[in-house]
Description:
It is a single chain. The chain has 235 residues and is mostly helical. It is built from 13 helices and two strands; from the N terminus they run ααααααββααααααα. It has two domains: 4-76, no CATH class; 101-234, no CATH class. The protein is 76% helix and 4% strand. The longest helix is centred in the middle third of the chain and has 37 residues, at 114-150. The mean pLDDT is 81. The chain crosses the membrane at residues 75-94, 114-136, 169-190, 210-234. Keywords: Membrane, Transmembrane, Transmembrane helix.
Amino acid sequence: MSDIPEYFINHPLTKRDGYSPLFNFSWKYWAIQSISGMLAHPTFLVETGALSADNIKNFPSDLKKLLILTHHLKLFYLVNITLIAVTLQLLEAVRYPGNLNELKFGDFSYPYTPYLTALLLEIVCIVSIFIVGVMYKKSASLIIQTSNHHLSNCTAIITRQSMIHSAEFGRILFCVCVATLITHSTFFIKTGTLHAADVKSFPTSLKAKLIIGHYLLLASFAGLAFSIIALKLLD
């Protein structure tokens, strides 16, 4: 923690939070996760001026390797936990003792369990969430630049600038925030959070992309919650 302020002295979050070694455990954990994400994916931060190439170059190589390894291990752990959970549920579906339903196509019929139906819904929803996340990740630079230009008067955008300068997950969350504002612009205009002129000037193609992503994400989380509840009830 003592090395971070020295090498990231110009970074907006360093100026705001200090990244002090006196942080409590939860703040230290958050800071280390954030810094490891920045070091693993520094391109956007360098392009926007939040970090300089010298910041990355001069950062202690051994510590940099350790933090990048930590970042990738965390992602690997999350992916594997998800795969293990789905695999265990697939095995549960195979040995499900309940009554079988039949899926018929003319003379062809295929027996399946209600458990498998709920599990397939869960898998589809997880994949959909992943796809939307990847879409936001790839479009993050465009979404951030466009929202900062067209929605510069929006308090929600102004107060969430720190997300832009954190790791990639923070930028994905920022994109989710922008998509929510654009999709429900009528409500946010009424509350004064958005200006009608700002929403009107927002590029139509990007607006449509954000609205589709927003509703797909909502449907995916709703479907995921429904499938988890259904699986618990069938156990």
